[in-house]
Amino acid sequence: MTAEATIAERTYTIGELAAISGLSVHALRWYEAQGLFPRDIPRTPGGQRIFGDEAVRWLALLNRLRDSAMPVADMARYSQLVRAGEGNEADRIALMESHARYLDAQIEELIASREVIRDKIIFYRRAVASRT
Amino acid sequence: MTAEATIAERTYTIGELAAISGLSVHALRWYEAQGLFPRDIPRTPGGQRIFGDEAVRWLALLNRLRDSAMPVADMARYSQLVRAGEGNEADRIALMESHARYLDAQIEELIASREVIRDKIIFYRRAVASRT
DNA sequence: CTAAGTTCTAGAGTTCACTCTAGGTCAAGG
DNA sequence: CCTTGACCTAGAGTGAACTCTAGAACTTAG
């Protein structure tokens, strides 16, 4: 009896997972086709997908990556590394460090942009105010 | 003699402006078609565009807005407000404040994402280290 | 058992922000 | 002049990330 076997896992239909993850049913199927899941999704005898809590957690991570502008291709690459199992941590680290560097640069740039926008707002406020 | 008339302004061909702004020649023509310039671009008798320093400065601003993910439609709306002249500062402020709020949220989210990424990296580094 | 609501696949369609093509016209150096 | 490189317009094409469609199969409440 392995540790995994002791974990009672809820299951979800694709519609339920869509509601939880915020992705559309279509998007979930498309994600699977793009190789964005680190495990094969089991099916009912009739062919319908059965997702588990692991998928819920994985999608939370994917959402983070996507919302921070990681391309789907990179998410797919990462998923495939996880799928391949232990031993490729160096590759995973490289991928994540690359994204972290992108995020650092992006954050800096957005902060600079916010400054510019703020200055514009101040400028227009003054323009309005000076028109007694 | 107005103040403007005293400003000696350099002119630029579309190719020069492309080099300066980092946009392609195609993109600049497309920007004009999208209404992203707050003034009509003058032409030579032969029909070629003549840009001035004002266009250079305007594109620097547009680049900031675009790089901070403002949709072209919003940049067009802003350009049209500037084109319309003084008196619509409230609209300009509303547009910029909306974008500023978006930026604030985006910056927060990217910082949170960076944390998640950093944790992943740390986790993988440990996994590598523990495999003596 | 049946009807309604989900889910299935394969593939076409959409949106955004360009990018590229075709078939010319213009401008500047020699 | 003439050539060559830059520029013109209109419109088609691209890549990313979905979104939607059609027609069929599955599932479940009654």
UniProtKB/TrEMBL annotation, chains A, B:
Q: Which residues form the HTH merR-type domain?
A: 11-81
* CDD domains from the UniProt entry: HTH_YyaN
Question: What are the record keywords, sorted?
Answer: DNA-binding
Judging by the UniProt lineage, the source's domain of life is Bacteria
Write down the InterPro entries for this protein, in alphabetical order. Answer: DNA-bd_dom_put_sf, MerR-type_HTH_dom, MerR_fam
Pfam families of this UniProt entry?
Answer: MerR_1
What PANTHER family has UniProt attached to this entry? HTH-TYPE TRANSCRIPTIONAL REGULATOR ADHR, REDOX-CYCLING DRUG-SENSING TRANSCRIPTIONAL ACTIVATOR SOXR
Q: Can you say what this protein is called?
A: MerR family transcriptional regulator
- Origin organism of this chain? Cryobacterium algoricola
